[in-house]
Amino acid sequence: MAENHYENPPLTISKIGIIGAGVSGIAAAKQLYHHNPVVFEASDSIGGVWRTCAYNSTKLQSARKDYEFSDFPWPNRDDPSFPTHVEIVDYLESYAKHFDVLKFVKFNSKVMELRFVGQQGTTQLGGNGGAYGSPLPGHPVWQIAVQTNGSQNLQWYAFEFVVVCIGKYGDIPKIPSFPHNKGPEMFQGEVLHSIDYCKLDKDAASQLLKGKKVAVIGFKKSAIDLAVECAEANQGPEGQPCTMVVRTLHWTVPHYSVWGLPFFLFYSTRASQFLHEKPNQSFLRTMLCYLLSPLRRGVSKFIESYLLWKLPLLKYSLKPDHPFEEDYASCQMAIMPENFFTEADKGNIVFKRSSNWWFWKEGIEFDDNTKMKADVVILATGYDGKKKLKTILPDPFRSLIEYHPSGIMPLYRGTIHPLIPNMAFVGYIESVANLHTSELRSMWLARYVDEKFKLPSAENMLEQIYKEMAVSRRITRFYKRHCISTFSINHGDEICEEMGWNSWRKRSWFAEAFSPYGSQDYRLKN
Fold this sequence. Notes:
31% of the residues lie in helices and 16% in strands. It is built from 18 helices and 19 strands. The two termini are 37 Å apart. 39% of the residues are buried. The N terminus is likely disordered. Keywords: FAD, Flavoprotein, Monooxygenase, NADP, Oxidoreductase.
């Protein structure tokens, strides 16, 4: 094994280590089954954020058949209702048991540190074309320190290849910054982040909210669900309204139908995505995109017209200033709970638009010099996924997480960082169907590890990544979320071609053009 600058700890040596047993970790473990991977899971169960960051009312935002593994359909996949987080965890556990991947998982095993013990200079561009050689070089490249069951003693493992599947959500909350003497320390009430609220059982959550003046900071899916739970806990004469403090508005949809047409027709077919720019497109395709841009904007306006008719967005001043397609292109479209505006109509949910706010002794003060009293403030302000990675990655790799000037993590095929050797990241670039893309990328990763194909040079991988980033930047102001929703089929095509698969997965040209792509299209085809 290569020499390193640390005191050599006792090592358990294996080929592949996987960090995290959420959706991505289980998908990666199944695809890498033949390598007997070791999976480290910090909690006592699989499921990731579906188990640790879910509210009592949390549901999937799509139908079951749009959130399933290619070789393990839901038993009740035609049920039109959205499954609860409990049903999703049950489905993931059934999948893991069916394919016998639980035997690889070490529960209550928290990764505390990674050490690179491979050859120095691996991350330099140039030289041997920027390539790192074999993904399984025959000797350990990474060491991982693991804390088991809260023990103070660390156990060390060594691997030839590591797959990081801890995701962008959960664990480390993103907390707003406040002016001096205007932070939570000034507030006499209770302040918590949505990650803390997730840990409460139903009775404790109800007790926290019932009869209290609650402010929910945010207007994305977690904030919307939280406001509904708050309103439901405050029914009756003793109830208090929940105030949503909204900085940036986003489009929400009541269901997956627009003026009687299925939503997938607008963004999830080859024909619909032909209207949108994609990486590596020809000059002719670029000109066609330009000529068809009025039609693309028309689709967005068509959807907006339905949402403004169906939902009281104008009544509550909740109409975003940006087009719908910008939210879709950044994976920020949320399904509105059925009773959200019913509770708003009853006065149980109220809205406050504000660009800036801070705490005062009895509540929150806004930049328009108004104040509101509050007993509880819940920050639905998201998570710091990059910080989570930086806590375990060593230098110089820690600084490469934000290698691109935009701060976006550069990942080839959404999986490989060109400058971090013998490591993959699954579940970091978003799409409208994250389970499907995690599985497809895990299939690609397994074939790469088995050397069924070789990666391009680091320079060429970075060039491809920057093309994807440039496309995102041109279509949405929220490009830093790094979402591939408007060119997801093209993304799948390129992955298939690299694996040696036929990229057109349907049985007829009509289905190719007008039916949506999903996980079942990638089942047992090569």
